[in-house]
Amino acid sequence: MGFLIETAIAGLMSGVLYALIALGFVLIYKASGVFNFAQGAMVLFAALAMARLQEHMPWPLAFLLAFAIMVVLAWLVERLVLRHLVNQEGVTLLMATLGVAYFLEGLGQMVWGDDIYPIDLGLPKQPTLVLDKLIPGGILVSNEDLIAAGSAAALVALLTLFFQKSGVGRALRAVADDHQAAQSIGIPLSRMWVIVWSIAGLVALVTGMIWGSKLGVQFSLSLIALKGLPVVILGGLTSVPGAIVGGLIVGLGEKLAEVYLGPMLGGGIESWFAYLLALTVLLIRPQGLFGERIIDRV
Amino acid sequence: MLYRENGQFKTTYVSDAQIFPIRQDRWFIAVALLVAFVAVPMLGSDYLLRALLVPFLILALAALGLNVLVGYCGQISLGTGAFMAVGAYAAFNIMVRLPGIPLLVALVLAGLMAAEAGMVFGLPSLRIRGLYLAVATLAAQFFSDWMFAHVPWLTNDSSSGSVTAPRLQLFGFGIDNPVRKYLFCLAILCVLALVVKNLVCGRKGREWMATRDMDVAAGVIGISPMRAKLSAFAVSSFITGIAGALWAFVHLGSWEPAAFNIDVSLKLLFMIIIGGLGSVMGSLFGAAFIVLLPIFLNRLPGLLGVQASTSLVSHLEFMTFGVLIVVFLIAEPHGMARLWSTAKNKLRLWPFPH
Asked: Which residues are paired to B164 by β-bridges?
């Protein structure tokens, strides 16, 4: 029992990180209709920037600087790439973001170096024992994970507040709803895109920071975006709550499957289990759990 | 002037339906085939054949297969590498377990296996479409990566996980030197390209294209979306499966599952988008571009006389690759095939102004 709960908690913790990556995808997809394959590269780039800057300054300052870099990056992407590809098909845009991903991976490693760098946020590393009265043996929970999950939740809450209450957030929701209508009432599309890519950059930075403080920042960080993809389609491409719930489901399912099914199948099933899970859900609900219903007209 | 169809009248249905309706096109194809089959093997150096032309031909074949699915039928797939892997491992198992089986038979059987895998992973396309489908096809990719690394039977219980191709023989000739490898791949590419060209001009191709342009409308006018989509998946995976077998047997020689990872799938998608969606010629252009680009980028510092460390070169390669893709998409989102047809249109009048 204790082991099951511990596994489940570990799964939920990694689920929070998947949810963060998925959130980056969903934000950009909603606002600009771009399926941003570069999210993983952005995580890597932001984390590398943060790790290297942190060597010279305290981490909150490094965090702000890295965020500033991501804003500049968002502006450049809008200015140099997206602006020229308005009205292109989804695949073309997807390929363009793949180009951006390659560029960022190259640039990040060239500017910041290609070793493994630690990010030290001064979080407590030792786990705490909880519920030792209820369950024999108790449950070990890593404090670091708890803080990470807490800050991820805080970020999501902050973003929700921003989207629901602020003027810019309202404009962003309008753009997400209908580009043309938003533009016709005077919302500047290009500035909205810069803002939403900056927010995705912030999400990438937080993801990279949490992941990097656990495992160190290295090239493989850009691959975790592939973990975010099934989460996105499971939850629905256009839904923020979907990204969060989807992330938790995938994280939980993946850990449980690895522990309980893995030994039967020869291990390592983590790499595809999430996709299988997402596929099964999609067969029943093609728009994902929370996605907008797709209506076709001839 | 050079490319003018004046005076070429189509007087029969057969001549109206042929795949190269214009005489200049037929001449061009004939000359191109002559150059490819006769001049290149005679003049090309071993390095050129082995390191450039053989990979180009095989990747062009795989791109052609993917183009059937993405360009003609409109189903985005990010799992091409998986179907190539199925083809490669199927061919390997067939040749190891049934000694003496002719190479071509093994290749076709491997292609059929890949087609079957393609149809299984194509099933979700009946329910989901667009970007959702693109992500769903990644399931094929990761599942095949895992399967070929974790099921020992498939790799004939090889302890390291890597397998080596048996000796290849065709009608008593060993396919062992670069010239023969080149000719073998070229022949297969030509045959399959002709098949695809015929398919897309016929009934099946029109079904695919109708499904691509609007599947609901296609369903309304009596095209079964299921048959159209699954047949596109089958044909596409058949071709990519054969390409995978060739890539493993002829180009690599010995390989492990990582040879068919997601990078391969993405590169193939690049090829058809840069080359041109829905165009046989475009697949060839795209493959040529993607094969040549890294070689060119690798040589560039040397040509400019700059000393650069290998890691710097590889980072720069990544960056240039990314930039070129973006620039290309912005400059010509319809790919090189569009440039090609624009050039042909220009040639109708050139060198006269009217």
From this structure: B254
Task: Please write the tens of the pLDDT for every residue from A157-195.
Answer: 888 888 888 888 888 888 877 778 888 999 888 888 899
Is A226 in Cβ contact with B262 (below 8 Å)?
A: yes
CA of B271: which chain A residue's CA is closest? A95
Q: What pLDDT score does B304 carry?
A: 75
A-chain CB neighbours of B77 within 8 Å are none
For testing the chain B interface, which of A32, A45, A91, A265 should be mutated: the one with the most B CBs within 10 Å? A91
Half-sphere exposure of B110 (CA within 13 A, CB side): 33
Contacts of A90 in chain B (CB under 8 A): 130-131
Provide, rounded to the nearest whole percent, the portion of chain B with pLDDT above 90.
26
Q: What is the spatial distance between Cα B208 and Cα B218, in angstroms, rounded to a whole number?
A: 9
Asked whether A36 and A24 are in contact (CB, 8 A), the reply is yes
Q: Which of A89, A102, A110 to mutate to test the interface with B (most CBs of B within 10 A)?
A: A102
Tell me the average pLDDT of chain B: 85
CA B60/CA B62 separation, integer angstroms: 5
Lowest mean pLDDT among A135-139, A243-247, A251-255, B267-271: A135-139
Substitution target from B138, B145, B150 for chain A, most A beta carbons within 10 A: B138
State how far the Cα of A80 lies from the Cα of A70, in Å rounded to an integer.
15
Closest C-alpha to A242, from B114, B284, B132: B132
Q: Where are the domains of chain A?
A: 2-284
| B58, pLDDT greater than 90 | yes
Residue pair A269/A225 in contact by the 8 Å Cβ criterion: no
Inter-chain CB proximity B318 and A102 less than 8 Å: yes
CB A84 within 8 A of CB A239: no
Chain A residue whose CA is closest to B269: A95
Which residues from chain B sit within 8 angstroms of residue A298, using beta carbons?
A: 214, 216-217, 220
CA atoms of A242 and A248, how far apart (whole Å): 10
User: Is pLDDT of A133 > 70?
Assistant: no
Q: Are A99 and B146 an interchain contact pair (Cβ–Cβ within 8 Å)?
A: no
At which residue do the structure tokens 């946020």 appear? A121
Q: A106–B318: do the CB atoms touch at under 8 Å? A: yes
Residues A275, B142: C-beta atoms closer than 8 Å: yes
Give the separation between CA B79 and CA B261, rounded to whole angstroms: 9
Per CATH, the architecture of A2-284 is what?
Orthogonal Bundle (1.10)
